[in-house]
Amino acid sequence: MPRPAIDLFHETFGAPPRAAASAPGRVNLIGEHTDYNGGPVLPIAIAQRTTAAIGPGVAGDAGVLEAVSTRYQKVVRVKWQEELPQGWAAYIAGVLRELWALEVVPPNGSVRVAVASDVPVGAGLSSSAALAVAAAKALAPSLRPRQIAGVAFRAEHDHVGVRCGVMDQTISALGKRDHALLFECASLEATQIPFGARLLLVDTGKRHDLSGGGLNERRAECEDAVKRLKVDLPELVWLASWPAEWLPRLKRALREPLRSRAVHVVSETARARFAAQLLQQGKLKQFGRLLYESHESCRRLYDCSSAELDTVVAAAKRAGALGARLTGAGWGGAAIVLVSKSDKKTAPAIQRAFERAYGRSAPISEVKASAGAHTERL
Ligand code: GLA
Predict the structure, then answer these.
(1) Residue of 138, 145, 169 whose CA lies nearest to 53
(2) Which neighbouring-strand residues pair with 332?
(3) Labelling 278: which of 66, 81, 333, 375 has CA 20 to 30 A away?
(4) How far apart are CA 233 and CA 225, in angstroms?
(5) Which of 156, 166, 167, 298 is the pocket-test mutation for ligand 1 (most atoms within 8 Å of CB)?
(6) Percent of the chain scored above 90 by pLDDT?
């Protein structure tokens, strides 16, 4: 739905935009907190998208970014090379700086951007990656999808300062309809795997903000673990490369909480690769069991779940769903639930359990693997 961004541009700046592009949010099927550890992830792009409509700024207004969104009506105005605005517009300033580094945007370029999105913010569905990828695609439509992902990743990681991995921007740029993407974050090998299963998304309504907190702390713990493990294995670069059959040795080498964090990363790496094989073979039941295992590992070892997420996963399991787990960074946000095509019981059972526990409902929707970023017709 590119219209709202295009209309907002016109209304705000009094002229039509020059170009527009959109990019999706994502859910991750399995492979959580593995990306920044050099492991595999298996996300799908979702139907909800962010659209960025862009046009040139006023002549003589050198190096100025003016940005507006349907969510926050106020126009943000900054010199994008010199200052990073607070909040959502920082992602666009970051994208501009990265495009400048690639010599796609001139250093004194002035840009106007209008954004509209139906990706919920803070729900663990990568609204920030959708924003950065959409802006990059609109500003530099001729870059290849992997370049777009790189620009958006560095905008978030280097400029906004969220120490995320590459998963969200990669799936938002490379996503393919009816496919999941197996992405190996160390070798950067990408494999599209057909995905037509029925997947529910349960939004716990508990919001998280990644720019402060959990993710950065976990990442520092993983780096610390690698430093210590290098004593045993000097060649170790990525935590995810630690051999799974050496888990006892890893446990001996590390103290808590690093031990639990590292066991999660190494076992989740093996689990995600196995899950991708099962998915490729259409073995959904076994695949689903790995989703439950992954949730348990996130909850117990990586300590990134929340009571609400655990309630949803436990209710799904009791109702006989094939699999369920938190998706994305965790600490709130959304859970995914894999169900058979004929399943009618699971969604109402989750709803009942959630209402009983929290006195409110948790929106449940169906997820369809959707297309990655593309330009939009004006
Ligand atoms: C966030 C980050 C991703 C990834 C997930 C956890 O969504 O942005 O890069 O690390 O958390 O798997």
Answers:
(1) 138
(2) none
(3) 333
(4) 12
(5) 167
(6) 91
Residues 83-122 as b/e (b if ≥16 CB within 10 A, e otherwise) read ebbeebbbbbbbbbbbbbeeebbeeebbbbbbbbbbbbeb
pLDDT of residue 212: 54
Mean per-residue pLDDT of the chain:
96
Q: Give the C-alpha separation, 294 to 131, whole Å.
A: 28
Q: Is 328 in the pocket of ligand 1 (CB under 6 A)?
A: yes
List of residues 6+ apart from 220 with CB closer than 8 A: none
- The string of pLDDT tens digits covering residues 101-149 is 999 999 898 999 999 999 988 888 999 999 999 999 999 999 999 999 9
pTM: 0.96
Q: How many CA atoms lie within 13 A of 302 on its CB side?
A: 30
Q: CA angle, corner 304, sides to 118 and 329, nearest 5?
A: 30
Of residues 217, 210, 221, 224, the one with CA closest to residue 328: 210
Please check the confidence at residue 211 and state whether its pLDDT lies above 60. no
Tokens 């926050």, located at residue:
72
Binding site membership of 43 for ligand 1 (Cβ less than 6 Å): no
Q: Output the residue whose Cα is nearest ligand 1's atom 1.
A: 329
Alpha carbons 316 and 353: distance in angstroms, whole number: 9
- Atom of ligand 1 at shortest distance to CA of 304? 6
* Summary count for the chain: helices (H), strands (E): 11, 13
Q: What share of the chain is helix, strand, coil (3-state, %, to 5)?
A: 40, 20, 40
DSSP string of 250-285, one letter each residue: HHHH--TTHHHHHHHHHHHHHHHHHHHHHHHTT-HH
Instruction: Count CB atoms within 10 A of the CB of residue 227.
Output: 11
Give the closest residue to 262 by CA, choosing from 14, 63, 56, 39.
39
Query: Does residue 329 have its Cβ closer than 6 Å to ligand 1?
Result: yes
Output the pLDDT for position 124.
Answer: 87
Question: Is there a contact between 36 and 28 (Cβ–Cβ < 8 Å)?
Answer: no
What gap in Å lies between CA 162 and CA 156, rounded to an integer? Answer: 6
Structure tokens at 336: 């995914």
pLDDT tens per residue across span 291-341: 999 999 999 999 999 999 999 999 999 999 999 999 999 999 999 999 999
